[in-house]
Amino acid sequence: MNYFFGFSHWKHGFVEPFFDQKPIFINPLFGQGHLKKALSNGLNSKKYIYIWGRKSFPDVERYAHTYRLPVFRVEDGFIRSVSLGSDLTQPYSLVVDSRGIYFDPTVQSDLEVILETTEFDEELLDRACKIKEYLIEKKLSKYNVYDDAVLNFPSDKKIVVVPGQVEDDASISYGAAGMNNLKLLQQVRSNRPDAYIIYKPHPDVLSGNRVGQVDPDEALVYCDRIVTEVSIDSVLSCADEVHTMTSLVGFEALMRGIKVSTYGVPFYAGWGLSEDVHFCERRTRTLTVDELVGGALLLYPRYIHPKTLQKCEIEELLEALEVERKSYKKSLWMKVRNVMSRKSQMLIRRFKGMM
Any idea where the domains of the chain sit in the sequence? Predict the structure, then answer.
């Protein structure tokens, strides 16, 4: 049996298909400690421990260290779903990391080891190249929630895209400490004074589910246009450069051959593919884009099929996602469900804020 800590109740059924053994979720009530709850449910030195993201459980982690229990950290993968995670939608990919987690550069992760040490053979690179081309052709990304649109920008200026992020996200806390969306915009304007800067707020922030809203009037002091509720592919198709803290948009831009500048330390920085303000000394290798794709999308995550919820390869998931995305665009019920989910999440946050 495996013991899972930090997984909110709505995630319980969603993560189960990714694991061979039935998870035991530890969500104590009425002040009971996590370790005490786990021990009363059979935790011993022969079990495995799984923790969501970078959540901290000091007593559990001390117990694991004392008895040499494996500890894995779990997070959404890079190709997640149709619609947002904050809308409580089923993820179709997860990463399970035995060392750290990909968004925390302060500790070595399994992904970093994969990228630093793997000898990528021709078969894997050919597969990675096809995955990259399929993602670009079908305009698939992490969430796949917005429609495509034709955007018109000045042809006589360099187009720089700045993707907004969720400001209380762990990837910012660990990978870009001290920055926020407004500071990023200010820095980009300073670095590219003559460029046409496009700011694209994060979809979770636009939905009202997460923190990171920049007042439009304030943002427009440093950018030329704010683009919302269109696919990221629509914006990237016009971009000359992407400037980001740690956003996955930087990875998607690299796949498209777009110049990327990072102001934090995302997993794709430090491999000779981007211009980076900060460096991770452990990353000593120069990679190709296909090697990066092979490590990040083929070797690191786990995938399940949207229909069967059985484990599958990424190629099967991408084909199923394309079908599901088309159905989503035609489904009034799915859109209404997501709106209701957003409203309920906002009410829950307001309630917690009053406590």
Answer: 2-116, 122-301
The single-letter code of the amino acid at 239 is A
CA 136/CA 125 separation, integer angstroms: 17
The size of the chain, in residues, is 355
Q: What is the pTM of this model?
A: 0.89
Structure tokens at 103: 């968004």
Helix, coil or strand: residue 347: helix
- Comparing C-alpha atoms, which of 209, 202, 228 is closest to residue 88? 209
- With a CB cutoff of 8 Å and minimum separation 6, the contacts of 340 are none
Q: Which of 131, 112, 144 is nearest to 293 (CA)?
A: 131
- Determine the angle formed by the axes of helices 314-330 and 122-138, rounding to 10 degrees: 10
Q: How many whole angstroms separate alpha carbon 270 and alpha carbon 287?
A: 9
DSSP β-bridge partners for residue 72: 50
Q: Do residues 304 and 312 touch, judged by C-beta distance below 8 A?
A: yes
Q: Which CATH code is given to the segment(s) 122-301?
A: 3.40.50
Using DSSP, state whether 335 is helix, strand or coil: helix
- 117 vs 293: CA distance, rounded Å: 15
CA distance 234 to 183: 25
Contact 50, 29 (CB under 8 A): no
Q: Which parts of the chain register pLDDT below 70?
A: 30-31, 82-88, 143-145, 205, 207-212, 328-355
Given a contact cutoff of 8 angstroms between Cβ atoms, the answer to whether 23 and 2 are in contact is: yes
Per DSSP bridges, beta strands 311-312 and 196-200 are: unpaired
Q: What is the pLDDT of residue 342?
A: 45
Cα angle 264-247-188, degrees, rounded to a multiple of 5: 60
Per DSSP, the three-state class of 23 is strand
